[in-house]
Design brief:
Elements lengths: L8 H17 L23 E4 L2 E4 L8 H12 L4 E3 L11 E4 L6 E6 L6 H10 L3 E5 L12 E3 L5 E3 L6 H10 L4 E2 L2 H5 L6 E2 L3 E5 L3 H9 L3 E5 L2 H4 L15
Parallel strand pairs: 2-3, 5-6, 8-9, 11-12
Antiparallel strand pairs: 1-2, 4-5, 7-8, 10-11
């Protein structure tokens, strides 16, 4: 997130549209959250909430500049049949939460250390009724869980070990002994900031090494150019809030 390097807004929009079209071409339904003046970070839609089986745990952003985004996300869910719970503790939605419905009967992985308050993990467990595993992030380059770990399908993950504390690494090794292991070059290319439907793994175009790793694990990588969104600190996953009705 180098503020001295300008973003090309027209190109950013073109790349966002490419991501949306890629998802629809793969057969997914895409809802678009309307932009609001003064909230440029709304493009990172993953941060506004976290949903599991029709229940939504709303975000409470750490930085006041993004606070109004949580309200916009709440209004979106209010228009449907969702059971919405507003977060009391600081949390940044799917930025720091991942759900694996097929792992251990349904497991939530949750990150803390830079943005999300650890107390939000217990709060999410009460709201969503699923066990939450707390993982401590220790490298400021990977400030959200979704920069260091991703679900590849209902049971399997990929992650960069050194983004986590030694104890959290032991937990991940125990829970996911067959995980796809990323290296620092993968993580710095935002290769772990991906979206997977269990078959297709959507990555940014710089994530060539990770693409080969997921291909070897049996998935089909799909590349999308997101250079301008990466300038703001996010890639594929940051721009997508996954809905789990």
């Amino acid at each position: 997130m180098d503020t001295t390097v300008p973003v090309d807004p027209a190109l950013a929009l073109k790349q966002w549209e490419l991501l949306r079209n890629t998802l629809t071409d793969l057969g997914h339904t895409v809802h678009v959250l309307d932009a609001r003046p003064g909230l440029p970070d709304m493009v990172y839609a993953a941060n506004g909430a976290f949903s599991v089986d029709g229940t939504v745990y709303g975000a409470r952003f750490k930085h006041p500049e993004r606070a109004a985004e949580a309200i916009a996300h709440q209004h979106f869910y209010a228009g449907g049949t969702w059971n919405f719970a507003e977060g009391v503790h600081v949390n940044e939605g799917e930025g720091d939460f991942a759900y694996l419905p097929g792992a251990y009967g349904g497991l939530i992985l949750a990150g803390h250390g830079f943005r999300t308050d650890p107390a939000a993990h217990a709060e999410a467990q009460e709201v969503l009724g699923r066990p939450v595993i707390s993982l401590r992030l220790v490298d400021p380059a990977f400030y959200h869980l979704d920069t260091a770990l991703a679900a590849l399908d209902d049971k399997h993950i990929t992650y960069y070990p050194d983004a986590f504390s030694a104890a959290s690494q032991r937990v991940l090794r125990q829970l996911f002994p067959d995980a796809v292991i990323a290296d620092r070059a993968d993580a710095e290319a935002f290769a772990l900031n991906l979206v997977s439907d269990g078959r297709h793994v959507i990555l940014n175009t710089e994530s060539t090494a990770m693409a080969e790793k997921v291909r070897a694990a049996g998935y089909s990588p799909v590349h999308v150019e997101l250079s301008e969104l990466k300038r703001g600190g996010g890639s594929v996953k940051c721009a997508v809030a996954e809905l789990r009705p």
